[in-house]
User: Fold these one by one.
Assistant:
Number 1:
Amino acid sequence: MKSEQTEISPFTGKKSVILEITPTGLETRICMDTGYTTNSNYKIDGENIDEIESSTSKLIKELRFTDVLLKQYWYLTTAMFSTGMIYPEGTPEEWSWVYAPIVDIAEKNSKNFPVPGKEGEYYTTRIATEVAEYYKPLEFENVCKRVGMAKPVKKTI
């Protein structure tokens, strides 16, 4: 996957969008300032948009951005890592990035976390939303650093 290209963000006007191109030609973009992401499958009025949005939160759908230059939609990202999860939370008028860490479940408490459809099987870790950390909408790069995934992006105006 080719991924060292950066482009101008349609949100901030800064060179903070990372472009990756897969071997099959799929182009994905993520704005490291805002956390919005798009790919070449998110075509405006594309046949697959209803399917994509059917498993997307109301907030993400409400904050969808239409990029007329790319002819694609951009969505706030969600991401799961071995250390935790990043996701947006709130209302369209007032929202935050959230980092919720993954924590171990003590064996004595595991019975409270059964794996659906698997009799006698229990989760050993969970997402600890009660100790989540909150970041402002333009602090996406900071929340990415928190989970150890962000690399510095040279930004120019």
Number 2:
Amino acid sequence: MTNPELNQDAPVAADDRRIEPRFEANGVVVLHVEKVSIPGRLLDVSEHGMRVEHMYAALASGMVLEVERDGTRRTARVIWNRIKNEGVESGFYLL
């Protein structure tokens, strides 16, 4: 069964240096950092990671948190952050 939120035919950024293919994704996620819940928007996914847009600039590389999507929580590590005019993009490695 395929997930309608994933576009499996649309790999992201050909110049991306990641080993795993990434696929455009769409959906709501919640980042749980200690006692703070941060809403976010899923941008793309791979087998072991995801990229999320959110408004919480206090995330730091190396932080471990939980990512909730569709009622399921997964532990993840923040790999990178990019501050943009419209918010923050973060890359996560799923543990």
